[in-house]
Every structure is written in C-alpha cells, then in structure tokens.
C-alpha cells in the first residue's frame, strides 16, 4: 500500500492522485510557461470552474442527504474534524498575518477563513471490497467533512464580494437558489428518459452553476443544497442525477486542476501563505482526526487523521471560486491552496496509516 | 405535462430574479446555458405535441424570450449563448459525415450529384437574372453599374441561394429520420454548401477587383487552402478519433465534444472551414474506421441534443426582428421568389436525374432553411464593405428569420409524408435492405 501511495504522489497513478499530474500540467500549459492557455482562454474557461463547483456540491449534498437518513454519528465526526482543521489553520494564519503585516488586499479574516475552508477538504481514499473497516470509515468521513466547510465557504464568499446584504442573508439566498433549482430539476428529471434526461440534468447543473456565479455567491453551496433536496424528494432523482453527472465527473476535475495550474501566479504573499497552510493543515488534520475518531466506531485514533491528509480537489475549487468573486486579490490564496495541495499529497506518502503499512 | 410547465415557470422565475439581482459584468455564460437548456427543451417538447419540429420550438423560445421581445434572455446572455455556435456547427457536420456511408450510397451517388448540380445551376442563373432586374428596388447600392453591379449582384445571388446544412442535419437527427429523402436532401445541401463556399470566395475576389481592392493572394491559393486544407485537417482529426474509439473507447461523448472543440478552435485559427473539416472527420470515421456497435451513435445523440437545443435557442434569440419590421416587404417578396425558384430548380433537377417522383417532389421542402452559414457569409461582406454590405446584411438577416421559421416546418412535413420519421432507430442492415429495395431512379 505504501508503494501504491508513493506511485500516486509521483503521479504514476493519475486516477488516485490527479493533483500531482494535472496541476503541473496546467502550470506548463499556462501563461507563465508555454502560454497555450492564455489569459483570454482562462476567461472563457471560467464556466468550467462554476460547473465543476456545482457538480462537486451536488455530489456532497447527495452524500450528506443519504447519510442524514441513517442514525449515524459519522456526519458529526466529520463536522468536528473539519471544524478543528478550519480553526487551527484560520487561527494560525490570522496570527501570522498580524505579525508579518503582509500587504494583502483582502481582509485578514477573509484570508484566514478562506484558507481554513480550503484546508479542511480531504480526498476520500478509494475503497474496495475486503478493505479494513478503518479505511471504509475514513472514506465516509472524507466524503462528509466537506459539508460544514461548504456552508462556511458560502459565508466567506459573501464577505469577500461586494454584495450589499449581510453575509447571513447572502448564504440563505444561495441555499434558496439551490433549492429552487433543485425543485425545477426534480420536476423535469423524474419523468424523462434518454438523451432528454441528460439535457435536463445538464440544464439544472448549468443553472446551479450560473445563478450563484452571477450573484457572486457559491455554486458549491447551491449545488449542495440541490443535491440534498434531490435525496429527500420522492423518487429516484438523486440516483439519476448522480449517474448522469458521473459521466462527466473525471474530465471536469481534470479541467479544474489544469485551470488551477494555469492560474498559478507566484507572489511573495502566496509563498508566505503556502508554508503555514501546509504545516497547520497537517496539524489540524491529525488533531481533527484524533478527536473525530472518538465518535467514529472502530477507528484507531492515530489512523483517521493520516487517511485525511491527501487534500483532494474541493479546496482548490473553493480557492478558484474566491478568485472569481474577489478577482486578482485572491491570487495568493489560489497559489497557497494549489501548491499546498501538491505538498500535502507528497506529505501523505510519509504518513501512511498503520493499517496500510501493515 | 403540468410538471414540465411548472418547471418552465420556475426556471423563468429563477432567471428573471437572478438577472435583476446580479451585478453588471458578472459571468453570465452558465446562467444563460442553464436557462436556455431547460426552457428551450420544454418548448421543443411542446412544439412536438403541436406536430411541429422541435427545432421550431427551440427557435420560437429563443425569439420570444430573446432581447427583441420578452428580454428574459438579455442581449449579453444572447451574446454568451453564441459562444456555442462554433461547437454546434462542427458537431452537426460531424454527425452528417457519420450518416454518409459510401458503400451504401454508391448506387445512388450519380443521381444525387445530377439532381444537386442541375438544381443549383438553374437556381443560380434564374436568381441572378431576377435580382439584376429587381436591383433598383432592393435598396442595396442602386447606383452601381457595370462590373461593380455584376459583382455585387453575383454576391447577393450566392448568399440568397445558400441553404442550411445545419438545419437539415439537425432535423434529420432530431426526428430520427432515415431513408431516400433524408439522404438525398442531405447530399444536395452539402454539395450546395461546398459549391457556395467556392462561389463565394470567387465572387468576393471579383468584388474586390471591381472595387479596386484585390490583394496579392491568389484566388485559387485561398480556395485550395479553405477547401482542401479543411478536408485534410478534418480527415486527420477523424483518423485520430477513430484510433481513440478503437483503442481507448471510454467517455466517448466527452471525447467527441473535445474533438469538435478542437476542430472549431483550430479551424478558426487556421482560417479553415470548420463545417467541411468536421464533415471530413465524420466521413473518415464512418467509412474507414467505423466503430463497433452503437457506442458512437449513442454518444453523438447524447452530446448532440444539448448542443442543438442551445444552438437553435441562441439563433432564435439573435433573430433581429427589428430588421424584419424595417424591410419586411422586400424580404417577403425575395423569400417567395427564392422558394418558387427552389421548387422549379428541383423539378428540373428531378427530371434530368430521373429521380423517383415520390421522393423527388419532396426534396425542395428540405432546401428552404437558411441559418448560420448564410449569416456568417453576410457578416464577412458587411465587415469588408460597411456601406452597401451592411444593407445587404440587414436584408439577409430578415430573409434568414423568415426561412428559419418556415424551413424546418416544411422539411419535417416532407419527412413525415415520405414516412421516414423515426426510421433511424431501425437496424443498419434492415435500413440497407429497405433502401436497396427502393432505388432513387424512377426506372
């Protein structure tokens, strides 16, 4: 298993660690190296970010909705783990920004919370039949530890943008738009089939991506609200939507990572944020995993955090979303979250869980 | 249906609310796409219930919700939707290529070429004469004389005579039609498109000569590049895609959209004709390296529907109804003349090629539509000759508006009369047997 992880970190198994392969590819194709993905092309690819965010949100909403139907403590454990990671990273960044007096255009609180949200996401380990119970639990925790950060992320985005209403009202508006679009999608998807069903799913997804993006809000949160709605609504809407979206999920993630790489703009502020981001994310995940394992049955305290160190794509996607809303001011955060994702993936090689080592 | 209507109302409410609450300059593409996909698809379904083509529903939706009437799709939204046009044209042409299997068409190819050639020649000659005589009343640079008048009238003839491969292919794909009429109409429209590009390039050179602006680049150099370069590039892309299908064969719908984006993007950069390149790619895949089973057909269907919905909704939203109101009378007269000429030219072509009258008498109904290609050509003219070119563009936009609404309805009616709607889903072998038993020639 250690060999497996090492291969993943080196990008030899791109499906297990796409971050390691596609972000460097994006950097290579981007405006700072080959210039194939120009600034103009990046502007046209903005829609991919919004649609990718909405897709990820829908998947998380569906996972959370299904978990919520069962009497389980996993959702609570995941939320605690994510909360601790956010608290550790945000507090550390807030303190360090105060000490360094770094010239960052965004408010310090927004930078700290945004990095906390980026850090809290984890990539779920792949699970196969016959895997150890701890791996299965870790996979579910990693799936669910995005719910609270996405809610908080919606709040942070409304703080970063120039919307006039309060952040609470803006967050409620995002959820409202997501639910309304979810209702619209449910009315259409349940009674359609074939290519027409594909059109309706795609339309609902584009609306979930486009409406919050136009309002300067979070497509992740809107998508999550819709995904949650599709689970609780009568019928098989969640199953149908998940099946349709899975067909385009991999290319979308690859594009997101390439865009993140192409957007990578090294700056002094970005480099300064990168180091504490990696270090405190690691500390937060270990501490969060240790605490959450008290609520998750049958998991050794040291193992859960180790499983949650690989960062996945949601943190990067959120940083890109912040860039859409706040513009160039968010470039150092995109750098810290994107480069940090590669560093965290590399770090995960060294900290293989005890079960995998055995 | 009540659920569909409720969803439509909800989608409209969401779009109206978001557009009114959002900030100017915020990204609109995804919102425009989402709204257009949902609402136009429902409009297409309603249209089908009224025994009209779905395409007409998409167009009417775009027109009603577009900036000239309802303004739910605002001008910036309509502009964002246009981004998908290049991709749509390429995808549609690729599907057309997939439908043209030479071994199946071999027996009918001569008749198709004869009909197409005669019909286009008759139409071109008679239309030129009619436009020459009517020139003072058209309002396009009536003061021109001599070579300049010949050149501009020829140019107008070329643009007015053009057809719409996009609408023809889209209608065949949408109604799952298959049979002699579908194939004959498709062949004539594609042949006409090739000839049109050839004639347009030549005529533009003549116009440039007449107005004293001929460049050094030779006529045949640019023609060779545009036509043969497009075919070569498309064939290469098709071969690569066939290789992918055979050796990878995963996520074909996404790969197909990627291929279309590549052809559209690279084609535009290299000044190739994306429609021809995509057609060549489809021909290569179908005739040289056909995929096993129905995987590509399914992927094409899955990928094509959303693209078609948005393409025609965008076309409807961009129809300049104010232009129609300004010069509607002239446009209507010209449209009537064009339709009469298509009918006459097809009759002449049918007689010459001895096409089975059951099929031949319906072909003209598939040639009425005009869309993207015609609009693209008039835009080139207007950009190069802002004076009379812009007036010509206004007239052509009005004509396109009329033909976009009438053309699909006529063609679907023809397909229904020929009994070809829904026949595409029959197995290929069964289809071949049916075609072989039904020759195009009357004898």
Element layout with pairings:
The complex is a heterodimer of chains A (358) and B (443).
Chain A: H1 2-9, H2 18-29, H3 39-44, H4 46-68, H5 74-100, H6 108-120, H7 133-144, H8 147-160, H9 167-189, H10 194-215, H11 219-232, H12 237-263, H13 268-292, H14 301-307, H15 314-326, H16 331-350, H17 354-357
Helix pairs in contact in A: 1-16, 2-12, 4-10, 4-11, 4-12, 4-15, 5-6, 5-7, 5-13, 6-8, 6-13, 6-15, 8-9, 9-10, 9-11, 10-11, 11-12, 13-14, 13-16, 15-16
Chain B: H1 2-21, H2 29-49, H3 54-65, H4 75-81, H5 85-98, H6 102-105, H7 109-138, H8 146-161, H9 165-174, H10 180-210, H11 219-247, H12 252-269, H13 274-287, H14 295-317, H15 321-353, H16 357-363, H17 372-384, H18 388-417, H19 428-436
Give a short summary of the structure.
The complex is a heterodimer of chains A (358) and B (443). Chain A has 17 helices and no strands.
Please give a structural write-up.
- The complex is a heterodimer of chains A (358) and B (443).
- With 358 residues, chain A is an all-alpha fold.
- Chain A has one domain: Na+/H+ antiporter like fold, CATH 1.20.1530.
- Chain A is 75% helix and 0% strand.
- Chain A contains 17 helices and no strands.
- In chain A, helix 1 runs antiparallel to helix 16, helix 5 runs antiparallel to helix 13 and helix 6 runs antiparallel to helix 8.
- Chain A is globular, with a radius of gyration of 19 Å.
- The N terminus of chain A is likely disordered.
- By secondary structure, chain B is an all-alpha fold.
- Chain B folds into two domains: 82 residues, no CATH class; 350 residues, Na+/H+ antiporter like fold (Up-down Bundle).
- Helix content of chain B is 77%, strand content 0%.
- The longest helix of chain B has 33 residues.
- The radius of gyration of chain B is 22 Å and the shape is globular.
- The C terminus of chain B is likely disordered.
- The chains are: A mainly alpha (358), B mainly alpha (443).
- Chains A and B meet through helix 4, helix 9, helix 10 and helix 12 of A and helix 1, helix 2 and helix 14 of B.
